[in-house]
Design brief:
alpha+beta; globular; 5 helices; 2 domains; OB fold (Dihydrolipoamide Acetyltransferase, E2P)
Length: 194
């Protein structure tokens, strides 16, 4: 945690800021100038932040917020609710290789979607962070395969301790009470034609 001071209506105000490493799972438009960013962070798990002014051309966030980026971030916690205020972003890995093939981008989105679906807000899990990082980095270096997809599903099921090994990993993940990511069928179709 960081303690920072800022001035509000002529008064000095101290505020606590959190700091973590995070992977961008989703970016959603909030207003004409602001975005909501959903992160999987190493220290805090799944969090959501508002990046005010991020959609403006001269924003301090310009070029720093995009899917699958790994960043060092700091944010101010919301007084109530779970939508926090993003303060700083420093990109550590852009993962440009993911954008060279639609199939790679689709599989990366599939990985992020599973993490987002089965994770509780602000519940850190270093194993999931490591798996997602390795999965995304693998897709930067190599084309997507059915084997890579099944490995990710199997490891995610193992990390979450979902039992019955006689069932396929994707069925065990779905047994956690969430629906499978909608893009799975399209991803399977694309992988079968490669």
């Amino acid at each position: 945690m960081l303690l920072s001071m800022w001035r509000f209506r002529g008064k000095s105000v101290w505020q606590l800021q959190e700091k973590s490493h995070g992977i961008i799972l989703r970016v959603t438009r909030l207003t004409d100038s602001s975005s909501i960013i959903r992160w999987w962070t190493l220290e805090h798990g799944l969090i959501e932040t508002v990046a005010q002014g991020a959609r403006r051309s001269k924003s301090p966030y310009a070029g720093k917020i995009d899917l699958f980026f790994t960043c060092e971030i700091s944010w101010q916690r919301a007084k109530s609710g779970t939508l926090h205020q993003l303060r700083e972003v420093r990109v550590e890995d852009y993962r440009e290789g993911l954008r060279l093939s639609y199939a790679s981008t689709l599989m990366a989105a599939y990985f992020c979607s599973w993490v987002e679906k089965i994770s509780e807000a602000e519940h850190a899990d270093a194993g999931v962070y490591d798996l997602l990082t390795r999965g995304l980095n693998h897709l930067v270096e190599k084309p997507p395969t059915l084997r890579a997809m099944q490995y990710f599903e199997r490891e995610l099921a193992r990390i979450h301790g979902v039992g019955d090994v006689t069932l396929p990993s994707v069925a065990r993940l779905a047994d956690m009470g969430v629906s499978m990511p909608a893009m799975r069928e399209e991803l399977l179709r694309r992988l079968s034609t490669q």
